[in-house]
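User: Could you check the structure of this?
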Amino acid sequence: MPWTPPPRPSRRSVLAGAAGAAGTVLLTGCSDTPSPAVTAAISLDRRMREAAVRDSERLLERYDATGAAHPSLAPRLAPLRASVAAHAAALSPAAGDRPSPASSAVPSAGTGAAAAPAPSAAPVPPKPAEALTALADAERTLSESRTIDLAGAPGELARMLASVAACGAVHAYLLTSTPGAAS
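Assistant: Sure, the predicted structure tokens are below.
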């Protein structure tokens, strides 16, 4: 039995299918309301970003308090503090979507970062070496919290949290290492 090609669709059926697809695109494209799945992903991303920014801001407060209590440490802390400030800026929601002060004061449920202890709650130790260790502990705790949050974070935010967590681990190392010492 010789092979015969399958029948070709009629021009009418091709045009009807194209018109139906175009109509569907136009109808869904004109809607201002995103789908519930998109809304949930945006909402989760936003909540996680807001929590991450709050945590970074608390860590910045901790750097500021340590620098104020031990001015001799300020030059050593300055680049690390600048890095934490850059993390807060990178993690923040878009400028037009900034949360109100009242909503940003309440930790969001469902993120591990909200469960992390506030690094600025502890007083700065009186000895510079102890202050550096306390600051390193705060960095390490936040880094571990962000690593845990990776599991529930949307793609791009997960990559950013991984990068910021790794940077926090490096900060903890730098804060507890002796500057200028041979390795």
